[in-house]
Structure formats: C-alpha cells, structure tokens
C-alpha cells in the first residue's frame, strides 16, 4: 500500500466506500469531497500496488500561523482492507500535517465505534464532549475528541 494525495478522479471510489461504511447515516457525496478539496483540505488516499483506492482521510485547518486548529473530517477504509493498518497510516498522515502546523486536532466519532475510539486514544486523543444525535438519520451520538498540538521536538 502507498499513501498519496487524494486525486479528484478517485472521488467516485470515495463515494462507494462511504456508502459501504456509513449506509445507516448520511454518507458523503461526490459534491462534498469536491468541496473539501476546493476549500484546500488536506486529503490522502491509500492505494494498492494496482493503484486502486482502498482508503482515504481528510483534515481541514483554519486559523493563522501560530494559531492553527485542525479537524479530522473523515477517515474511511474499504471493508475488505480493514485490519491491515491502513486506518492507522491514514490517521498518522493527517497528524503529521497537523504537527507541521503545530495545530491541535479535533474530531467526532460515533460513541459505539470502539475500534476507532481506541485508535484515536492510542494517538493522544481524549474525549472532551458528546454531541447528541450528531449522526443522521440514525440519531447516533458522537464523542468529540481532541489531541493537543505537538511541536516538531515532541514528535521527532
């Protein structure tokens, strides 16, 4: 597997994976992915040796130098490729970008997604709140989690 910048030509594949992973809620549309890329979001794809997209992740950053804040907007890995460390690799790519900016990172995760919650906790995230009925139409709750900003000295 290799990680590389998400290509616009792979957005249709992102939408397929979204529908697979988030069928009970509101999966992202192609328009949502295009909007994120148009807004300058940092998006990474996970590609097989055959150049097939099997996962993706996105980070949005706001603010000014010295006062940036980042949010994980999405991480998705095709069911057939889960359990191989792709989610971890994608998250680490996003965190490396946030670390370059010395930005804290926020995210929302379903309260019943134990696997993702454990992944985030292993990478320094802590729960800071609950968003009731955050995911629609299921009405599932989400934890809001935060990872403090890391400097290059702390990381390296």
From TrEMBL:
Classification via SUPFAM superfamilies:
Acyl-CoA N-acyltransferases (Nat)
- Does Plastid appear among the keywords? no
Name of the protein in its database record: Ribosomal-protein-alanine N-acetyltransferase
Methyltransferase is among the record's keywords: no
**Recorded GO terms, molecular function?**
N-acetyltransferase activity
**From which organism does this entry originate?**
Amycolatopsis alkalitolerans
Q: Where is the N-acetyltransferase domain?
A: 1-150
**What CDD domains does UniProt report for this protein, alphabetically?**
NAT_SF (cd04301)
InterPro entries in UniProt: AcTrfase_RimI/Ard1, Acyl_CoA_acyltransferase, GNAT_dom, YpeA/RimI_acetyltransf
Alphabetically list the UniProt keywords: Acyltransferase, Cytoplasm, Transferase
What's the family? Belongs to the acetyltransferase family. RimI subfamily.
